[in-house]
Specification:
By secondary structure, the chain is an alpha/beta fold. It is built from 16 helices and ten strands. It folds into two domains: 270 residues, Aldolase class I (TIM Barrel, Alpha-Beta Barrel), CATH 3.20.20; 93 residues, Recoverin, domain 1. Bound molecules: 3-methyl-2-oxobutanoic acid and zinc ion (ZN).
């Protein structure tokens, strides 16, 4: 089994389903070009039958990019697959992503059907999509809550029908990492033809486990991860691309790799946030405003002595200029001395003690002490100003 993890980006499909995040076709093409530059392997460009706009976007993206596979979502229905095939006809490499519910909850309450019937419909959909001449990925919706033996029989049947990729979504974000990993391992061990397909993981973040579950699934044997930029997506979101990619890069011990050009991560995160009018939370891993900023005295002192004391990722690796030291009432002398030095003032010993006392008075009044505040502070400290 190869150790390369295929990155399947669904920002423009699962991500774009978020209310208020809809993009116009030109904007989607713009994002798709940036995803191509980032190095993703698959772009899920939309759900072509869902609206004329999505149909046109899938055509536009198919024309605009050349390296990534372009994928269109369908239900296990003839009209969906026909429309997706039509939209994907300009793609250098197109993929139809079709599927149906696999959990008893979905089978009973969504499809009002039986295990036998959904399995049959899934197999039919894969064969029909395959007959259109595209790669086919099958999703077993709500696989995270499905009966394992039934899930295995469904996966085996759709691979026999021609599925190239089998997606095992934790649609409701229900799974725990060790149990999701066991699910994937069970499929690896119990589906006789599993070697003929790539296993894909697609996790939602309802319990905040999306990245942990995705990594667990990769450890269990999946080789494709379905992700979105900034983790945007239905409800609490999808797995975030940047978290998975940087986890794989940071934990060399996993023995896995991706082809993502990580130094482009911050730029595309900002682009998607701006275009989708979806601010990135400041403490968001990898791309949040505070991800590389240090504010407490103990951390600032340790960081200034040796960055690795408090940083496991070099900010330049994800396209962030540099780490920042934020001056607040929790900052210590080391950070103040460092910032004054950057402003051209070398201050030590008793002078530093003196200016630090005045600094704390300002810091208690203000949330952040800026360079301008320091310039005024220096000007009002006779021993330095003179
Ligand atoms: O979460 C999910 O199950 C999905 C499928 C349509 C792939 O998004
Ligand atoms: Zn999803």
């Amino acid at each position: 089994m190869s150790n390369k993890i295929q990155i399947f980006d669904t920002t423009l499909r699962d991500g774009e389903q978020v209310p208020g995040c809809q993009l116009a076709t030109e904007e989607k093409i713009n994002v798709a070009r940036e995803l191509e530059a980032l190095g993703v392997d698959v772009i899920e460009a939309g759900f072509p039958i869902s609206s004329p706009g999505d149909f046109l976007s899938v055509i536009g993206i198919s024309r605009a990019v050349k390296d990534p596979v372009v994928c269109g979502l369908t239900r296990a229905k003839q009209e969906d697959i026909d429309v997706a095939a039509e939209a994907l006809r300009y793609a250098k490499r197109g993929r139809i992503h079709t599927g149906i519910g696999a959990s008893d909850v979905h089978i009973k309450h969504k499809f009002k059907s039986s295990r036998e019937q959904v399995l049959e419909q899934g197999v039919w959909a894969v064969k029909y999509a395959k007959s259109k001449g595209f790669e086919v990925e099958f999703y077993a919706e709500d696989a995270g809550r499905a009966d394992l033996a039934f899930l295995a029989s469904m996966v085996e049947a759709v691979i026999a029908a021609g599925a190239d990729v089998v997606n095992i979504p934790d649609t409701t974000g229900y799974c725990l990492p060790h149990l999701y990993q066991k699910r994937i391992e069970y499929l690896v061990e119990n589906v006789s033809n599993i070697h003929k397909a790539v296993i894909s993981v697609h996790c939602h973040n309802d319990l905040g486990m999306a990245t942990a579950n995705t990594i667990a699934g990769l450890i269990g044997g999946a080789r494709q991860a379905e992700v979105t930029i900034n983790g945007i997506g239905e409800r609490a979101g999808n797995t975030s691309l940047e978290e998975v990619v940087m986890t794989v890069k940071t934990h060399k011990d996993l023995g896995l790799y991706t082809d993502i050009k990580t130094e482009k991560i911050y730029g595309i995160s900002q682009l998607v946030s701006r275009m989708m009018r979806m601010p990135v939370q400041p403490n968001k891993a990898i791309v949040g405003k505070n991800a590389f900023s240090h504010s407490s005295g103990i951390h600032q002192d340790g960081f200034l002595k040796h960055a690795e004391n408090y940083e496991i990722i070099n900010p330049a690796d994800v396209g962030v200029d540099c780490s920042s030291i934020v001056l607040t009432a929790r900052s210590g002398r080391a950070a103040l001395r460092h910032r004054l030095e950057l402003l051209g003032h070398k201050v030590e010993g008793a002078d530093l003690d003196h200016i630090y006392e005045n600094f704390l008075i300002i810091a208690d009044e203000k949330k952040n002490v800026t360079d301008n505040d320091l310039v005024v502070l220096v000007a009002n400290t006779p021993v330095l100003a003179g």
